[in-house]
Amino acid sequence: MAPNDSAPDGRIQLREATAEDAGPLTRLFLDSRAASMPYLPKVHSDEDTLAWMTHVVLPGTTVRIAETGAGALLGFASLNGTELEHLYLRSDARRRGIGSLLLAEVRGLAAEELTLYVFQRNTDARAFYERHGFTAVGFDDGSRNEEKEPDVRYRWTADVG
Q1: Higher local confidence (pLDDT), 8 or 136
Q2: How many Å apart are CA 29 and CA 9, to the nearest integer?
Q3: How sure is the predictor about 10, in pLDDT bands with cuts at 50, 70 and 90?
Q4: Cβ(159)–Cβ(137) under 8 Å?
Q5: How far apart are CA 55 and CA 44, in angstroms?
Q6: Cα(84)–Cα(61) distance, rounded to whole angstroms?
Q7: What is the DSSP letter of 12?
């Protein structure tokens, strides 16, 4: 991260996404997937992915953005009820606590439970979620996703006792 990417106090800022964020979020989504999961087939064009982000993700889920004080996009999370549908970071923003901040934000919004899917081969993401208290509750053969990539269903529940 370049020195001018940090907020004056060094903190990362979280905010709700707006329709104007569709382009930058799409680029981050595509770049992050290519960098962290090069084995995934590309099943949609960049233009189709932008349309999906614009017309499905942003209006249909709760999207939180992590950015620097200067407004540089670092990552985002998309929540649909209690389902964490997406959590993606810029590749140079990984392992700096930004994913943990976004996860804490969506945990607060979901309150008592979160579920999500992760590709089985995405060992970094699996380790991240397991470190944050998620438990694998199901393994699929890939027939449920467009990429046809085997995945894992994870679940987290709040400690209500």
Answers
A1: 136
A2: 27
A3: low
A4: no
A5: 15
A6: 10
A7: P
Q: In terms of DSSP H, where are the helices of 13-144? A: 22-36, 46-52, 58-60, 98-110, 123-131
Distance, CA of 131 to CA of 147 (rounded, Å): 26
What is the tens place of the pLDDT at every residue in 43-71? 999 999 999 999 999 999 999 999 998 88
d(CA 141, CA 148): 8
**pLDDT confidence of 161, banded at 50, 70, 90?**
low
Which of 125, 2, 12, 113 has the alpha carbon at shortest distance from 65? 12
| Architecture per CATH, 3-112 | 3-Layer(aba) Sandwich (3.40)
Give the pair of three-digit tokens for residue 38. 């090069």
